[in-house]
């Protein structure tokens, strides 16, 4: 392959020497010993198992969370002289990857999932200069513009206080959203918040690496919920039978939390009563702000609205852009 950026299972950056570094995936066609693997954060779609990479360039917290999230994923962290990790503002432990080709000094910035705004216990991503930007564009459509985190947090807390006479069940990703929801509940008049064992295990890892404490209780079958209680559950559990039974038994109000809550259809698609725009990703405006701050020669978009955002950047700002497509073999193919 020619030097540059390639998309296979993960995003590969190939230096002029032929050395490859793969981000959030495994390399194609070469042994793992020949490739350095970088992992930006511990969400399942970004992790690699030990058979593909026993050592990863990642934060210590990401490696610790990975070992909890996937039993076959217990990596050791390593470093690489051409790789710098930068806090990405997505979830705890998340890092963007800055790669510098030692022969050409060309700088590649792979953001992974990121967010510019500070939120609760998380500092936002501070973009750095790079020649090439590889950007996740989950919300890279102009329709997806979010309220400020401060405004959203206040809306959520107001709603939690207004519904004090009810049990509320809050759905968010087990890693990231669930922890923020616990901290938001703690800031309201509600005295008890319950979580699943899976969320509790993640809490314990985070507490051991960061100065954060989650004052939550484990929910079990014999738990008796009462007015004013909150239960935080993973988003994918909204339609499970025992959840539906719990809602019926307690007459609970359900709420989902996501950037997709911008869409009016969100509450119907997720089967919840309320929806709040709480996201750990950049919205459209933050993505644009990120690009102009980095001011690269070339932008590659990955995941989500790749074509839409690439087109808008080229038209509005004159950047050379291209949406990444799988298994393109040379830079010229992009």
TrEMBL record:
Record has Hydrolase as a keyword: yes
Keyword Nuclease assigned: yes
GO molecular function: 5'-3' DNA exonuclease activity; damaged DNA binding
GO BP: double-strand break repair via nonhomologous end joining; interstrand cross-link repair
Keyword annotations: Exonuclease, Hydrolase, Nuclease
SUPFAM superfamilies per record: Metallo-hydrolase/oxidoreductase
InterPro entries, per the entry: RibonucZ/Hydroxyglut_hydro
Protein name per its UniProtKB record: Putative exonuclease of the beta-lactamase fold involved in RNA processing
Organism: Haloquadratum walsbyi J07HQW2
């Amino acid at each position: 392959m020619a030097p540059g950026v390639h998309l296979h299972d993960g995003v590969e950056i190939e230096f002029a020497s032929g050395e490859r570094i793969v981000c959030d995936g495994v390399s194609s066609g070469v042994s793992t010993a020949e490739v350095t693997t970088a992992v930006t954060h511990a969400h399942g779609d970004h992790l690699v198992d030990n058979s593909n990479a026993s050592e990863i360039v990642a934060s210590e917290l990401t490696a610790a969370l990975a070992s909890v999230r996937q039993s076959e994923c217990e990596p050791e962290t390593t470093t690489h002289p051409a790789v710098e990790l930068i806090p990405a503002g997505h979830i705890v432990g998340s890092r963007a990857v800055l790669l510098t080709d030692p022969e050409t000094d060309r700088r590649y910035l792979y953001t992974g999932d990121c967010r510019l705004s500070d939120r609760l216990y998380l500092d936002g991503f501070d973009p750095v200069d790079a020649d090439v930007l590889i950007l996740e564009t989950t919300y890279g459509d102009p329709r997806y513009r979010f309220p400020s985190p401060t405004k959203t947090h206040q809306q959520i807390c107001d709603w939690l206080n207004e519904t004090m006479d009810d049990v509320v069940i809050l759905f968010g990703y087990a890693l990231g959203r669930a922890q923020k929801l616990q901290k938001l509940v703690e800031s309201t008049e509600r005295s008890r918040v319950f979580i699943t064992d899976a969320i509790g295990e993640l809490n314990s890892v985070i507490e051991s690496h960061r100065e954060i404490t989650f004052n939550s209780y484990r929910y079990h079958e014999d738990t008796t919920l009462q007015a004013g209680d909150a239960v935080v559950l993973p988003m994918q559990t909204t339609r499970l039978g025992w959840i539906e039974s719990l809602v019926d038994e307690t007459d609970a109000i359900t709420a989902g939390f996501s950037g997709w809550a911008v869409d009016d259809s969100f509450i119907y698609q997720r089967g919840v009563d309320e929806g709040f725009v709480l996201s750990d990703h950049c919205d459209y405006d933050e993505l644009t702000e990120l690009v102009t701050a980095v001011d690269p020669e070339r932008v590659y978009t990955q995941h989500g609205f790749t074509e839409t955002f690439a087109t808008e950047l080229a038209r509005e700002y004159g950047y050379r852009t291209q949406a990444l497509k799988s298994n393109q073999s040379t830079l010229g193919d992009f």
